[in-house]
Backbone:
């Protein structure tokens, strides 16, 4: 695995090759493995090790980058020359900022450690043992199991010629299980920097129980229903909203927050933060330029309070017609590596705990007629300003009547405005670290939402 | 490269592998993009590495490394063997492979103009010209352009004796114009949405696309959409343009015919398929006019699914998928072919790069054009009342590939053979086999284009792959339209 000292030595060599006014290097490294199973057998089992450097050269308003995974002198010389060649031919951009200095990179005081040796050291044999236990659980139900058990160790770092240096290492482990019965299925997924926080057998048990409870699914008519969305379903929906909290998305007028910052867009029970230092979050404490990530309140009691900014976006916003209408404008440490087309995004979302949290069971108990949703699938944006999303339910969709789950139902297609959904949240659970398939990991609650718009039903 | 292959294969063999293969890849790419006249992307990337895939005790292991030295080759092969032994702890029967004659071969994409040999300044000047044309249209609030090049060189060696060297070039380009006004964001793209058109070609693709020539029209349409009528809801005859039909093929034919999905191997993520084994040669997939092939051969065209050999050394082939409406074939690999008793793999096992395990991926899944001369305008002229859908905006389909919903950037109402009004926010939905059985006309060869879908995701860890889809505009009867906006 690439170390900080090795990266510093490589950066020194790159600086010697560089003819640019300024140079910045992003380093990455990973050692990862993934055991995949289906039909109750391990059918794929992979491991990878890789590291590299991405060099950004800057000449008086011109910048470009080139990337390589080879660290020999010739390769480093070539990657520097490639970035310089791409930069030199551009028109000068007066808005391009100089590289940030070392004062910009300082880790938050509350940043928890995210590197766990037990995760980094997980062996193929240990992953296979866990899969054996998952498969045993499937066989007890006469089901078949499919899923993954993965672990990784990653590093990322940034060095620039003004003396900025930032480095982050972390581990990650993930278990995902689908249990398949003849005409039904159930699913669970969890991940954590610490593999000790994962319980594959428990996840398998919950997935199997969902498959068992939804055997012989019935069909109910599409329409507007009260839904209880488990956290993975919430995550995959709300994830489509957060790239619109980028300052550049508002400047470019491609955000659903155009003319809406400062307005009450969601219900008063919705408060959302971006907080890389939250104990249930993961990721590095600096952005693509090395700027420290700040804790930012995006939504307060339903009101969109502010946006996130890369350095250049903040400068541009201050001089735009939006200045004064979008809340505080400052670099928040959410920028992507430069150059890029989308600016920035909050990627460490944390929903604030509700005043009166309810468990999923309590939400079901208070529902006269509704639908319990385990997971969603293939979500896409239908309308970018009304934020209408379409997608399907999957792997555990249930009819709730008179406060009880009465059985599985065929999967629905929904067409639902995210704005409307977050305005009709009646109950929420305590937020938990959640992993889905359509969006990045977040800390989100389960939600009970009224008038959720199912438009079609499929054949299973 | 041969030495690297030998070191790894020899180690795998000595440690008990019954089969092993090695892929060594050098991957070079360039991404250029603009956003409202500013540089959005200017980047080069080069990645080199290799992998070793082994069968030990009847189970698979795979390991990869960026270090091409001898000790790394041997250690990576040893690691793959250890991983395979762990896999063997959870198996029911040994993996077997459909036989394939090992070959020694060279293959490369026909490439008239090497895109990496050209002036980047000229590339950027072209993007700037497009950007200027788009933003010259009053009402355009955001213009985005992109140009992408890739060169993949791969060496494949197997313990059966295969030695294959392939080089593929990929080129892509496109642009989009956005218009925000009131409570709407409207968008038009060219030649296709989400990155434009992509093919396995050199820079000559860019020269063929007439990018600048279409920019004003695209900008104008994006602005005009604000004053267009909302697409009505109901049951209508519809016509899909070629690029939208290409994506319809991708989602409702290309994915469900992947035999790994059918066999449950993708159940946790990508899903399964309604095309169970009992459906082969029995299911009436579409109308008599529906003829679909999976064709990776160069003679099919420069699609993103065109190659000489797949990533386990199986030559490119043409597999009939739907023949006069009847379901006739799956996408297969050596392992899945053996599992279902097919004599030979159809050659569809592909990997994103050196660090990914090859899995079944679409090649070029194409609908064949109609035999009778029929242009799009003639198809429109022969239609009494329908909605024409152009350029994808949203797409979604369930995890068995039955229920789909697509939205496009623009629609046109056709009445008595003429386009009578522009429609905004058009969408249609349906059930896969019902939809394909409703196709009653398809345009002929002159309207047929081999579209590229450059970012198809599948697998765990996820892999992104380019696929090709030849399509011509086609008409479908009595399709549900407009439900995307119902009640939302």
Residues:
């Amino acid at each position: 695995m690439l170390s900080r000292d090795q990266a510093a030595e490589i950066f020194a060599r790159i600086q010697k090759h560089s003819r640019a006014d300024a140079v910045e290097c992003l380093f990455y490294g990973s050692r990862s493995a993934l055991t995949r199973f289906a039909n109750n057998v391990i059918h794929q089992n992979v491991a990878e090790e890789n590291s590299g450097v991405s060099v950004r050269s800057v000449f008086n308003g011109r910048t470009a980058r080139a990337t390589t995974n080879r660290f020999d002198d010739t390769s480093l010389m070539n990657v520097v020359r490639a970035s310089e060649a791409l930069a030199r031919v551009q028109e000068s951009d007066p808005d391009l900022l100089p590289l940030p200095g070392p004062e910009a990179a300082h880790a938050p005081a509350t940043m928890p450690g995210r590197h766990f040796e037990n995760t980094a050291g997980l062996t193929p044999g240990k992953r296979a043992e866990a899969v054996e236990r998952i498969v045993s659980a499937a066989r007890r139900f006469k089901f078949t199991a499919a899923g993954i058990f993965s672990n990784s160790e990653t590093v990322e770092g940034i060095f620039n010629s003004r003396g900025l240096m930032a480095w982050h290492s972390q581990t990650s482990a993930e278990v995902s299980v689908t249990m398949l019965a003849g005409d039904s299925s159930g699913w669970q997924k969890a991940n954590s920097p610490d593999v000790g926080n994962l319980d594959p057998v428990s996840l398998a048990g919950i997935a199997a129980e969902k498959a068992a409870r939804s055997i012989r699914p019935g069909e109910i008519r599409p329409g507007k229903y009260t839904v209880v969305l488990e956290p993975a379903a919430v995550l995959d929906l709300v994830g489509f909203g957060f790239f619109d909290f980028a300052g550049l998305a508002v400047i470019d007028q491609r955000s659903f927050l155009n003319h809406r910052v400062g307005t009450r867009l969601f219900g008063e029970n919705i408060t959302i933060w971006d907080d890389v230092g939250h104990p249930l979050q993961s990721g590095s404490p600096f952005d693509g330029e090395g700027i420290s990530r700040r804790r930012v309140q995006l939504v307060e009691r339903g009101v969109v309070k502010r946006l996130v900014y890369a350095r250049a976006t903040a400068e541009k916003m201050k001089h735009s017609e939006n200045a004064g209408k979008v809340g505080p404008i400052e670099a928040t440490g959410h920028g992507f590596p430069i150059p890029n087309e989308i600016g920035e995004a909050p990627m460490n979302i944390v929903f604030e705990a509700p005043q009166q949290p309810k468990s999923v069971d309590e939400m079901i108990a208070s529902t006269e007629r509704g639908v319990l949703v385990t997971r969603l699938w293939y979500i896409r944006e239908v309308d970018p300003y009304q934020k209408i999303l379409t997608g399907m339910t999957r792997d555990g969709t249930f009819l709730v009547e008179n406060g009880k789950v009465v059985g599985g139902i065929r999967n629905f297609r929904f067409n639902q405005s995210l704005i409307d959904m977050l305005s009709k949240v009646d109950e929420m659970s305590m937020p938990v670290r959640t992993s889905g398939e359509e969006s990045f990991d977040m800390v989100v609650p389960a939600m009970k939402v009224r008038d959720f718009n199912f438009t079609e039903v499929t054949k299973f | 490269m041969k030495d690297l292959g030998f070191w790894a294969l020899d180690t795998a063999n000595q440690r008990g592998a019954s089969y092993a293969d090695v892929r060594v890849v050098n991957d070079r790419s360039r991404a250029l993009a603009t956003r409202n006249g500013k540089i959005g992307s200017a980047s080069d990337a080069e990645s080199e590495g290799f992998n070793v895939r082994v069968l030990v005790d009847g189970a698979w292991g795979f390991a990869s490394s960026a270090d091409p030295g001898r000790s790394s080759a041997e250690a990576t092969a040893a690691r793959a063997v250890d991983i395979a032994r762990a896999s063997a702890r959870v198996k029911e029967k040994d993996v077997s492979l459909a036989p394939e004659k090992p070959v020694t071969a060279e293959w490369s994409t026909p490439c008239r103009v090497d895109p990496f040999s050209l002036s980047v300044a000229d590339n950027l000047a072209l993007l700037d010209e497009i950007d200027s044309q788009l933003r010259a249209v009053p009402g355009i609030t955001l213009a985005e352009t992109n140009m992408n090049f890739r060169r993949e060189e791969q060496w494949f060696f197997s313990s059966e004796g295969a030695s294959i060297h392939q080089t593929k070039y990929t080129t892509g380009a496109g642009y989009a114009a956005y218009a925000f006004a009131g409570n709407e964001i409207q968008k038009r793209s060219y030649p296709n949405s989400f990155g434009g058109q992509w093919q396995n070609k050199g820079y000559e693709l860019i020269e063929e696309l007439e990018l600048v020539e279409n920019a004003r029209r695209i900008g104008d349409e994006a602005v005009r959409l604000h004053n267009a009528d909302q697409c009505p809801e109901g049951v209508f005859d519809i016509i899909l343009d070629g690029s939208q039909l290409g994506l319809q093929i991708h989602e409702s034919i290309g994915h469900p015919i992947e035999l790994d999905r059918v066999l449950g191997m993708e159940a946790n993520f990508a899903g399964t398929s309604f095309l169970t084994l009992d459906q082969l040669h029995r299911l009436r997939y579409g109308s008599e006019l529906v003829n679909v092939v999976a064709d990776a051969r160069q003679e099919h065209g420069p699609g993103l699914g065109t190659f000489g050999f797949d990533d386990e050394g199986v030559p490119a082939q043409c597999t009939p998928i739907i023949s006069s409406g009847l379901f006739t074939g799956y996408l297969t690999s050596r392992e899945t072919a053996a599992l279902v008793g097919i004599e030979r793999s159809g050659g569809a096992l592909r990997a994103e790069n050196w660090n990914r395990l090859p899995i079944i991926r679409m090649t070029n899944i194409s609908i064949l054009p109609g035999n009778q001369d029929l242009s799009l305008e003639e198809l429109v002229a022969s239609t009494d009342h329908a909605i024409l859908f152009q350029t994808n905006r949203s797409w979604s389909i369930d995890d068995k590939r039955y229920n789909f919903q697509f939205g496009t950037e623009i629609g046109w109402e056709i009445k008595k053979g003429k386009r009578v009004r522009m429609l905004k926010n058009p969408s249609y939905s349906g059930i896969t086999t019902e939809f394909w059985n409703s196709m009653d006309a398809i345009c002929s060869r002159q309207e047929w284009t081999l579209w590229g879908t450059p970012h198809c995701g599948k697998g765990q860890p996820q892999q992104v792959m380019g696929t090709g889809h030849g399509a011509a505009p086609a008409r479908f009867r009595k399709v549900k339209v407009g439900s995307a906006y119902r009640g939302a």
